[in-house]
Amino acid sequence: MTTASKAASVEFIGVTKAYGQVVAIDDIDFVVEPGNLVTLLGPSGCGKTTTLRLIAGLEMASSGTILIGGKDVTRLAATDRDVSMVFQSYALFPHMTVRENVGYGLKVSGGAKADVHAGAEDGLAMVGLEGYGDRLPSELSGGQQQRVAVARALVLEPQVLLFDEPLSNLDAKLRRRVREEIHDLQRKLGLTSVYVTHDQEEALAVSNRIIVMNNAVIAQEGTPHQLYEEPADTFVADFIGDSNMVSGEILAVNGKEARVAIGGVEMSLPSRGLPPGAVDVAIRPEACRLSNSAGAEGMQGSVLKAVYLGTHIEYTVDSALGELFIIDHQVDTPFAPGSSVAIIMASRGVTLVNPNSGERDMAGENQ
Ligand code: ATP
Predict the structure, then answer these.
(1) What residues are in contact with ligand 1 under a 6 Å CB criterion?
(2) Is this model's pTM higher than 0.70 or not?
(3) What does the pLDDT read at residue 201?
């Protein structure tokens, strides 16, 4: 398989797609570097699938330019683009054997019978399904069927491989396994891949970079680490992992450090270029620790709910900031509902967010 050498970049320059009055994506720019896996992540209706279908040539852009491997493909039909797609529904032909399904693309592109057979066997070996070639899709599990769909896309050695929610029909355990398999294969073959999901954990697990979309535009693009640690706005802070969104005040800024008052507690945090005054603060549930209230520093609180989950306890705690959702790993010293506690915030996991930047978020909830 020579797929890695064909891996190409994908570039959107000012791309808009409107369906009548509905603007599905609005003047979007991004670049996927060759060999990278980039995930499009966002709530239902934000424009992920439309973006994927524009790359595949299954939809045509209303305006803007799409480049694959530096070549303008904006007006090229799907059949003239060197792109394969793995669908959520697998889309296997039920009456064909697994081998015929995997070899189908090779056959219709005119491959000799022996080459189609060998290519299909290669593809099945790549996804760990050697020996399954003679079965029908109905004789395979859901996870195996999805692997056949991946093999079918891989044997075409595309410049770009697209995944449209490939794991959403699998149960949670299988989803984790298949996502690791896809990730390993993508890295091993150095395939440029664009992956659509609305599952943020899946996106964090498989991606080199993530493009978070909201209401037809890009809310933020970056590595999983950047999006989690430095969300650009309240929407991203809330969408990537859980966050308690609360109000605070920047009292003073000294270079890159801000002195901030949050619920009567003062702490130093990265200023992120924000000026003194009102600010939104995203507090990760893991950033708070509960302690016995007596003599402890921190914000006073009262436990409303405590849910034991083996490795951690999920608390809902009433505080000066309102109800906080807290994940505490100290399972040996639980606090029962009704307990008075001190809430101690670590600086890691507490992030200042521009209070104006989340406004689009509201508009994005209409789907
Ligand atoms: P989901 O996660 O639900 O699949 P998505 O982020 O993939 O959502 P898209 O399918 O890209 O969203 O849709 C973006 C917007 O475009 C939505 O408002 C949707 O209703 C609209 N849309 C998509 N396809 C069409 C179409 N063929 N005709 C009209 N409107 C469409």
Answers:
(1) 19, 22, 24, 42, 44-50, 198, 367
(2) yes
(3) 86
